[in-house]
Amino acid sequence: MTPAVWGALLGGLAGVGVLLVVGRVAVVRRPQLALRVLPYVRDLPQVGRTAVTGASGPSPVTAAAGVFGPVLRAAADTVDRVLGGAASVRRRLARAGLDVTVHEFRVQQVLWGLSAFAAAATLGVLEALADPTGSVGTLVLCLAAGATGVLARDTWLTSQVRARERRILTEFPTVAELLALAVAAGEGPVAALDRVVRRTRGDLARDLATVLAAIRTGEPVGAAFDRLAATTGLPLVARFAQGIAVSVERGTPLADVLHAQAADVREAGRRELIETAARKEVLMMVPVIFLVLPVTVLFAFWPGVVGLSLTTP
Question: Residue ranges of the Type II secretion system protein GspF domain (predicted)?
Fold first, then answer.
């Protein structure tokens, strides 16, 4: 073929490729139907289905459960029987804001334990290649690593709960002040809650969105906030929910209650900051005593020691 034919063929292929890329980009950039409908139904409770937003595909736990389902389920049941405390795990999962059942959490513990066991087994194999006599010690090390991995997932759950509660305490004064301003402007408790939930982001806003969804499905306002007070692990948030419930039921001024609770949270935060500074004061003295002070003493006395050594016959 002539160069002109080759040029026309390559140009046509390049044009088709560009058209394919442009068409794919247009399809990808087009908003999904779920994202267009979700703003109108986001306050409804998610019953029997997971949320659409933020779902990037199956999680590793789900994929592993699909492949090794029976084995993982049996191992998770064994861990649950050995460790127990399903009620405590359920409460901590709710306080951490994780949409995970107790059984799925046990599967995660098994996966963590298997990962630690595999890491220890790899080190044991490398050590066995150099010294084949330490097989019993390697087996004990692998078992200890597996148990440590299972317990490490439980410890990480507790850390997740504490981190979420710290975020809620940080968000609480602002949310309470916004609710108080909306109520003082003449809105009702439900309308004020709806406005604050739509304008804020965070863990406390998600909890309030759950309360708002329960209210819109017919649950009384006082009962919804009482349930929030019962499930939360923070006394300040529990008092906040109980205060709103009592104010709605008895007709007490809600704006004053919210302002007072926001002031209490800010004061509690200041007290905690002062107590933390007092506890860290001793740790702050460690570099001064063990690093700065020896260097200062050395610079002060070393010239004198050198001078004495020069003048001594």
Answer: 177-299
